[in-house]
Amino acid sequence: MGYIGQSPVVGAAQAAAPHSYRTGDGEEMTRMMRYKVIVLITCLSVLTGCWDRVEINDLALVMAGGLDLGENGQVEASLQIAIPQSSTTGQGGGKTKKAFMLVSETGKDGPDSLSKIQKRLSRKISFGHRGVLVIGEAYARHGLDQVLDQLTRSAENRYLVYVLTAHGTTAKQILKTSYLLESIPATALKKMQSNESSHSVKVDDFLGTLSSIGKSPVTGAIRLSSKDANEASFQINEAAVYREGKLVGFLTENEMKILQWERGKLKNERIQTQVERKEPGFKGTVSIVVLSAHTAIQTRMKDDLPEASITFKFKGRVVENDTRLDLSKGENIKRVESKLTEHMEKQIKNLFLHVQKQLKSDIFGLGEQIHIEHGADWKKIKNQWNDIYPQVPVNVKVEVVIERIGRTQAPAQLKN
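Now predict its structure.
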């Protein structure tokens, strides 16, 4: 029998399920569900809110920065800041305005200069998008101690920023120069540094090498390509050499290429050499494109002093034959390889003469190699390495191998 007012079927079901929830249990469960929902809503409201967030419209996005030597040893900081797109288009079909602005201030150090710049801006300075740091030549020769302190201390500075050194000009002048192919010049600088045509180094590598005793840092060198303000642009086809935190000189474009080859960062570069004497209709030259380049450095100790040998191996493809030689013949290929070897040996020896005897900067890391191969001897000489390095005998060996001669064996202008 079921309860009064209840069907027998329901009563039987309740009797068969003695553990089912009663009315009081249902109310308790409802209260628990309400409590969980309230807690969940409270947590979500806290998690989705950022009390200290800064809107993008409140940020001044720095695309590139520059440091120059001011009066009385002060620091002049320059920031290339992107102008929001909505404000760059002229109204009424007018001329489009610049997509960037340059702000500069001079202070006793980098942070002081930046503080003065911030007071001139309506937005908060943000370095999250900065891709390039340009150091003026005068400041680089003066020394980078203040720069290094700022780069290592500030949490806002990214270690993936490219470092460039201005040649014959200031960082401020570089940053205010427009570039026709890009609306913001910093974009062009970053793209030029990311390809293999110029020497590039990022802040983390630059700081690591600068703090090393056995190797000196090298950055790309940027200079203006025209003195005309209306036609001014920039190019990065040289390299800047440092020693003990100061700029000591520059490498030419050809010297920079050798450094790139040594570091395995340059391919498809052309080498031309004189193989025969010039005659009517023929320049006597052969040109190859470098397919691969490998370098090996070895050191040895002799009478407690180091000696070094560096070997360059090039593999190339003939792209021009302006001689009477038929390169399908083995003896002619050997002759061209020999001439190319002589040419490259001379170039590399001149580079070592420049950096070792004149600049006295260990850009190839001979000290690091001695540390690896002769650890005990390195401990004895590392504190005097800057004095020892210019006197270290360096033997240069070059090997050039032509792997391909192209579809035409003989010069195209020769008649059969």
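The domain at 252-407 is CATH 3.30.300.210 (GMP Synthetase; Chain A, domain 3).
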